[in-house]
Structures are given as C-alpha cells and as structure tokens.
Amino acid sequence: MYRSLVLLVSFVLFGSGYAIQASTITAGVYNLNSAYVNGSAITGTVTLNSAGKATAADLTYNNPSFSNPGLPRFNLVSISNVYNGLSQNYLTSASNAGQIAFYFNTLADSNGYLNLCIGNAQCGTSAGTVDPSSLQLYGFYNSSTGSNLGLPATNLSGGYLSQVKDSATAVTPEPRSLWLLGTGMIGFAVVFRFVKS
C-alpha cells in the first residue's frame, strides 16, 4: 500500500511539471490555416514569442482581384499585446496598403491549435470587449483594373495557428515547473531506492 502511494504521488508531481510548462505558448513560427475573407484565403506564417506576442509576420491575402505583385502582403508587426488570454496584433503591409487586426486565443485547444477570434467576445473574454480578427485594404493601384478602392474592415470567417515543426526556440521553464519537476524526480529516486531495498 505504501509503495503504491509513493509511486502515485511521484508520478503526479512529475507529470504536473510538464503539464504546467506545456500550457504556455512555445516560441516559434506558426502557420495560419483555414483563414478566409470573402472566400479568399489568407496564408503564411506568424512568429510568436513565449508570451504569445507576434514578433514577425508574413501573410498574404490570396484574392485574384488584387493583382499587384506582393500585394496585399502583411509582413510588419505594428502593434502586439497580450490581454485577458488574447494575443492582440496589428499586422501591416510594407507599402501601407492595409492591415490585419489579428486576435487569437493564447490557450491552445485540444488539437494544440491557437484559434483566431472571429466574433465579439470570443476567446473567453467578457461580452463586447474583443473585436473579431479582420482584414482591411486601403485604395491602391491595381495593374489589371487601374485604381482599386480596396476593402473595408471585413471579418475573417475562421482560422487557427499551428506551430511549424522544428521552429521552437528554447523556453525557460517557470520556477514552479522546475520545482514540480524536481520533486517528481526526487519521488522517483525514493521509489527506486525503496523498491530496490
């Protein structure tokens, strides 16, 4: 009975250290998946730090009616903030042709995905405090049709971020995780010694 109890406690402590560390965002490059505006996909990558803030971006709105080479491409992070479980970012194009208001949940879902906010008060915040992720294009010259009036702020219909394999950078575990990991290892040592004797 005593052996079983010691073994159970050590497993719980050891596992808890990893569970706490895994609940934070892993810094690295993330792919944007299943994100659409007016039926056209937004594709590319966003680089996140361990706090969940965007540090770099390379997204493209793949709408054939906007035919300028490289437009509209969003590769600058103008604002990045984390508030109430949300990453709140404004991604702009180098030519200032438009911006993406890019909000997503910093807590991963059961698949490990970081879901975009696509409506008010999503991502677990109180009602009315969060705008949906949206895309806005300003007027710019279109090589096929001449002047283009752009696109008003239009909500993304969905989307999520998934981490690109082998893109993670080292993340320093929080002190509590280290403490739990250490106590779990001590527990294993005690069990091993107890069973051996």
Write structural notes for this entry.
It is a single chain. This protein is of the alpha+beta class and 197 residues long. It has two domains: 51 residues; 143 residues. Helices cover 22% and strands 36% of the residues. The protein is built from two helices and 14 strands. Strands 1, 2, 3, 4, 5, 9 and 14 form a seven-stranded antiparallel sheet that branches. A five-stranded antiparallel sheet has the order 6-7-8-10-13, with no helix packed on it. Strands 11-12 form a two-stranded antiparallel ribbon. Strand 6 and strand 7 form a beta hairpin. Helix 1 runs antiparallel to helix 2. The longest helix has 22 residues. The radius of gyration is 22 Å and the shape is globular. The chain starts with a helix and ends with a helix. The N terminus is likely disordered.
The share of residues in extended strands comes to 35-45%
Structural class: alpha+beta
User: What ranges have pLDDT less than 50 throughout 5 or more consecutive residues?
Assistant: 1-23, 170-174
Oligomer: single chain
Provide the descriptors you would attach to this structure in a database record.
197 residues, alpha+beta, seven-stranded antiparallel beta sheet, five-stranded antiparallel beta sheet, 14 strands, 22% helix, globular
